[in-house]
Task: structure prediction
Amino acid sequence: MPSSTRSTATSPASAVRVVLVAVVALALSLVATPPAAAAARDAQAATGRPGITKKHFGTLAGGQKVDIYTLRNARGMRVRILTYGGIIQSIEVPDSRGRLANVTLGFDNLSDYVKRSPYFGAIIGRYANRIAKGRFTLDGRTYRLATNDGPNALHGGNKGFDKRVWAASPFQRRGGVGLVLTYTSRAGEEHYPGTLRARVVYTLTDRNEIRMDYRATTTRPTVVNLTNHAYFNLRGEGNGTILGHRLQINASRYTPIDKTLIPTGKIARLAGTPLDFRRPTAVGARVNSKNQQIRYGGGYDHNYVLDSRGRGLSLAAKVVEPDSGRVLEVVTDQPGLQFYSGNFLDGTLRGTGGHLYPKRSGFCLESQHFPDSPNHATFPSTVLRPGEVYRTTTLYAFSTE
Ligand code: GLA
Result:
């Protein structure tokens, strides 16, 4: 997709000049001569108009360069994305009084992402969440994955999609700016069968949404489950815990887990449990309940079976932070949503703004297929075969109330 720019106007008053600049901008967007386009993008960043700019972020030990793209929409919302892991590094959105804050957890340098990130903001693949004992059987063949989470495989293995450099191509169109990211995962990488061509399109819309369109194809039968692992704190990253956030999840059932966080295979009702978020409830209200499921998770770390059952784009969850008035809605076509209350954060990571991240200072709402689906015939299938196209869409929509 071409990188283009729509409006570069810096000129004031004169309507003639404005029209002239608009014409030049349009011509630029059509021709998209790289240096001119780059210069125009820089000008946009300086003038605060919608657009997308690129900068060098860091270099990996092997010499691979990592870029950071800044996307800015017509309403001044800004999102930064790294080519490393397709990581959403920052999300700046207004509170109810119009004050911007970065509401996602992250780092200001590449080395922390490489060495100590608990998947902050990253694209997760080839299989998000857990696969029991790192083992699954497909068409009569058993595959063994690395076990990187106790006895289980987690988030694509030792070097999942979150640790790969993605090829990036920016675009700008009516109503939004975005970035197309692509990555080819070779057959055998992390022991998964088939070469998987993955594409994730991030669009920052003028409605203050981050839209994520995922697509993948394979050369051999394989399993796929892609998601994004952004941690949110709607008070602003580094500004306390998320325990006062009010959460609603449109799910009446969930997949209970064993002590290694693997689904037992049952699909259970949430009614009457401290995991029920059908009515808006503060995250902290029941997070320390003496409930066995909550104990296993060390808080919330569970897959919710969405009432929409993966039939079309629907509102999966809504989070309201009362002090700032910020609201996050998660809209998805996936059948499941992992609600993780940041239980493993322990105050040792220093984030983007220079503050330490204590326990439960961020939460994740990961749209997904159910964990360990390859080992549960009764769960919706995650198998992708040659000729089929894996497609899924999730939106993070921001507003205030
Ligand atoms: C997911 C898992 C959690 C944890 C985090 C990363 O949300 O479900 O158990 O591994 O990722 O720390």
User: Anything to note?
Assistant: Residues 11 and 148 are 56 Å apart (CA to CA). The two ends are 36 Å apart (CA to CA).
